[in-house]
Design a protein that fits this description.
The chain is α+β, with helices and mostly antiparallel strands and about 200 residues long. It is built from three helices and eleven strands, in the order βαββααββββββββ. The protein has a six-stranded antiparallel β-sheet. The protein has a five-stranded antiparallel β-sheet with strand order 2-5-10-7-8, with no helix packed on it.
Length: about 200
């Protein structure tokens, strides 16, 4: 048997994540304090920030973005894509705070090549990162499944921990499971694009 066109999800552990996460948490909760309503996207009962201001080069969010460069380049390297630092851009970055029983419904990130999720706070039982099979026929026509495997699964999940950084193709339908812990789950998400006009 040959399998073709596998879909990768890259998973990294950020170096010194404990230190940077303290600063990121302070920044994110301050955003929430100043905008308690937030915005509504894929979040259900959770809080979704406006896009981060990434232009302030002295800010924690800008420093965090700059620290991701080597991971972004590694993903490009694995894909076999051309790496031109002047053309690879983060188009937007935001945070989501999911309190107990909140979750994110299935969605994609249009007009991007790569999307990412970074776990600033991820207590036990805070919900898996879940991916739906983008091959529509997997949910359309199939006989009774006896043993679930990679060939017949319609949804797969990844356990996550604080400091984990996930990259995945932006077209991939994904969602976040219900937070069953008594603590917040805090995630930073962002999109990566290539500016072909530079």
């Amino acid at each position: 048997m040959n399998t073709m066109f596998d879909i990768p999800i890259f998973k990294y552990k950020i170096e010194d994540y404990e230190k940077i996460n303290k600063e990121l948490l302070s920044y994110i909760y301050n955003l929430k304090e100043n905008n308690k309503v937030g915005v509504e996207r894929s979040n259900v009962y959770g809080w979704h920030s406006e896009n981060f201001n990434l232009k302030d080069t002295n800010s924690i969010q800008h420093k965090f973005l700059m620290s991701l460069t080597k991971y972004i380049f590694d993903v490009f390297e694995n894909y076999g894509w051309e790496i031109d630092p002047k053309k690879i851009v983060c188009t937007e970055m935001w945070a989501i705070i999911n309190k107990k029983n909140s979750f994110n419904i299935v969605h994609t990130h249009p007009n991007s090549y790569l999307s990412a999720a970074y776990y600033v706070k991820a207590p036990e039982n805070c919900g898996k990162f879940l991916v739906e099979n983008p091959n529509l026929v997997s949910n359309h026509s199939y006989p009774k499944i006896k043993n679930e495997n990679e060939l017949n699964a319609s949804i797969r999940g990844l356990n996550v921990k604080e400091g984990d950084l996930l990259f995945f193709p932006s077209y991939l339908p994904h969602k976040v499971g219900r937070n069953e812990s008594d603590e917040d789950r805090v995630v930073i998400s962002f999109n990566i694009n290539v500016n072909h006009f530079n």
